[in-house]
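Checklist before submission:
- one chain only
- standard amino acids only
- sequence pasted in full

Submission:
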Amino acid sequence: MKKVFSLFALTVSLLLSTAGFSQIFEPVKWNTEIEDLGDGTFNLIMKATIDDGWYLYSQNVPDGGPIPTAFTFTNEDGAFEVLGETLESEGKTKFDKVFEMELTTFTNEATFTQKIKRLDGGVTNIAGIVDFQSCDDEKCIFEMADLSFDLPKGKESVADKKDTEQAADLDDDEDESDRGLWAIFFLAFFSGFAALLTPCVFPMIPLTVSFFTKQSKTRAVGVKNAILYGVFIIVIYVLLGSMVTAIFGSDVLNELSTSVWFNVVFFILLVVFAISFLGAFEITLPQSWANKVDNKANKGGIVGIFFMALALAIVSFSCTGPIVGGLLVEAASKGGLAPIIGMLGFSLAIALPFTLFAIFPGWLNSLPKSGGWLNTVKVVLGFLELAFAFKFLSQADLVLQLHLLEREVFIAIWIAVFGALALYLLGKIRLPHDGPLTHISVGRLLLGLLTLSFVIYMVPGLWGAPLKLISAFPPPLDYSESPYGVGYTKLGGGSAALGAEVLPDGGHLMAPHDILHFYDYEKGLKYAKEVNKPVMIDFTGWACVNCRKMEQNVWPEPGVLRILKNEVVLISLYVDEKRDLPEEEQYVSPETGKKIKTIGNKWSDFQIKRYQTNAQPYYVLMDHNEKNLVKPEDYNPDAEAYEAWLKRGVEAFKNQ
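Returned file contents:
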């Protein structure tokens, strides 16, 4: 009995291990429906169900971007007429930093609709094919799916169902957008605390608290009035966020945030705000507004408290306006309720000190006295706004591909801005509203040294250093005057650094690293045998985001680059290559049952057949007998771990 149980357990274990090894991903599943519009006209409805964490690209993708979703309908006999273009449900559009363009994607579900008219002949079935790319945060899948539509003989409307599905699509989009609301809230909350430390707001704390404590008959009344004051501050700023959303609409805000003119306009606004913070001029609302509000505030009661809160917002506008404007820009990029949530976080940070100090007035004694340090905070914020303004200009330049603000220029501007900030903090620069400076505090000295260190860190970026700490801000490495680095055309040494005239048959140099690689599997394997090196297969894609991240962030690391250039033969197999195979080489895959028509189909099927996975990037180290040296690796941004994996494979090859 024990032997039977052990045999059963062993069988189950083997089955589970086999299932765990298989990694055939199918994140997008397609269903088809028909909507009879009458008079022989139909809507062919293609609905994609997308797994959590994955996204599907739109049909409309600019040149040089990812693989678009594309539909083809078989109509060899001319049995029907295609009317207009294929329509798609609403996706999310944003600027993609990897592809450097605006891209539209779908999550959870997507619906595509193609209108057709049945001609004479009474066709009852239409066949189609959809080519598409889907990705998650680590890998991409390049797929093709067959579609089939059975046209009804009678009227069969699915319009109501389609409306429900489209409404569900919008709900899913909203859920996805809401995930970023907490980030907006906390960003706004900490920005509110920064605004508190400006000369327009900080001195108002003891003045306002003293007013409530002295004018109120009892402490309880004073506390109640202070709480009302804080609530009204929140209401005023939340109303501002609500007005922005109501005027423009959440969808329009999202579209504006990725447009060229929007980025240029906010670049100009932030520069103006920054110059104001630096002391060139004051941005204030009309004095008549403040006077009218002050008169209302003197009436007392709840109405008076509300106008006191409004007076604070108006009087402090010259300091809070630039911060609020920047927050609204960031919130606009999220769309939905983000502007409202942003103003809630900002106003909560502003309101809390006024309320808490009114409840506990003894805390006022612990506050530092107003002085020149308040202006220093304002100037520091001005430098930061000036630096971040160029991110908006860079976005516009990337979209238009003007190459006016390339990586070196952007980094040079940041070096200048933060260098000036360091000199200011160290007391070497004085601005209009600065008072006499006999010495600098220890805190200011440390902040100045930290800023100076940051400037020094950025300097090598002018010569091609990746600057990973600020990788989200400057343009990518290949959007620069010198992609190889200033004064260089090759990176590193090794056999791959030789000229093109000595490249082996089928060999190519991969820029900017100049790694020798092959697109043809057989030629790459043949060359590996000639030079007696192990083979590294790189299952990749032209539109694979994380493939590019590995090539840009991990492969340039010295240890990794040395191995790729000197100790392995790299074969790059692009699974999204759209060139057709010769007709005699086309076949139906026994693994998937799909017709293999393109070079990309061939390598994707090869990956599935041999390695039971269809995700990219996917890396394999093998010997000349095509046997794995180590377990294959997928997306791994940890350069040390990736280098260790390469070393294990090379060592295993040498020990054979």
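Reviewer check: Confidence is low (pLDDT under 50) at residues 1-21, 154-179, 250-255, 489-501.
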